[in-house]
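Box 3.1 A note on notation
Throughout this textbook, protein chains are presented in two layers. The first layer is the amino acid sequence; the second is a token string describing backbone geometry. Keep the layers aligned when reading.
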Amino acid sequence: MRIKKAILIRKTIDAYSSALENEEDPVERSRIQQKIADSYYDLGLADQKDIKSNLKRAIKSYKEALKVRTLEEFPIDYALTQNNFGVACQTLSTIEDKADNSKKAINAFREALKVRTLKQFPMDHAVTLNNLGNAYRTLAEIEDKSENSKKAIIAYREALKVRTLELSPMDYAVTQSNLGNAYGTLADVEDKAENSKKAIIAYREALKVPTLELFPMDYAMTQNNLGTAYRTLAEVEDKADNSKKAITAFQEALLASTLEQFPMDYAMAQNNLGTAYRTLAEVEDKADNSKKAINAYQKALKVSTIEQFPMDYAMTQSNLGAAYVTLAEVENKAENSKIAIRACEEALKVHNLEEFPMDYAEAQSTLGSAYKTLATVEDRSENCKKAEHAFQEALNVWVKLNSYQNQKLIEDKLSELKSTCS
């Protein structure tokens, strides 16, 4: 289906390009440039292998259109082109130069909003505000997380003044889901419980619209996000209850995200489900829930191979290692510790120190815990040394990154290791 769509879009681009060659009127040329840009953007989404170059072609054509479509002479056209230019920059930001392209998108959306006011163009105003929120949320992933998350939240809330459940149910659901994502990002850096609860409220509002039967993928995505919010909340409050709510949400997501139809979404949901079970294992039925976590991670790894999806592979292997470490606390210490070690070593094939220092530190920490447990049942001296080395590798990263909370956790683990190995 995507291949056929890409072929049709390419034919459309060729037709517009031919028209552009034969057109001399600057206003008409700008209209054709807009069409070419929109088509290149659509082609980027249809042909994922060439998405980056097609997005750049779209951006180039939008810039050409804006040479004629000025704010003073053609304000409505100016706003449309700026909005679409921003969307292309925002999409490109998920592939390369996240900060720079997010900022270009933000600037474009703000330009569009000079025309698309709430009073004159309420629906377009809401569309651009939703896009602005997305750009701030992307920027928050790498820069000023708290400040940019809050700017995203403000934009989404403004959009929801127009995008109501009664008048625009699908748009309402999309923006509520985005609002939930922004609160989830904010929860990473401040007021974890409060912001996780706000994220949950937003996702539940979004779920008033997309049902499993009518909009299965939207339903699955929102359920997955809801599960993530409950899992985050479980870190600070009612661990068992919120972990169970997370598990329910991820299981709902898997009703739509099947292995056969949507393998990547399936793998993501299975990985998240595994982590929810692992969190639950910390407080309830350690062996049983650890095994359920392991089962979910193993299902995720059927899709997330090192050849095709190395980052997902490494993340899931690291999580798998942590689940086996937890299981090793209550049964088959030697066997489960060794499996945990192998999983961490697989993760570290991708999560190297230079490119992914935080992921590297997490995997080394889990590796240290596995060697520590193994040291209690065999080769005490050798495994204690390996545990100490792994913990020290993790500590070096957190010290360098000034992550005092993580630094303290590793220092505590080193102290525990000293007691175990003395």
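The mean pLDDT is 93. The CA atoms of residues 133 and 152 lie 4 Å apart.
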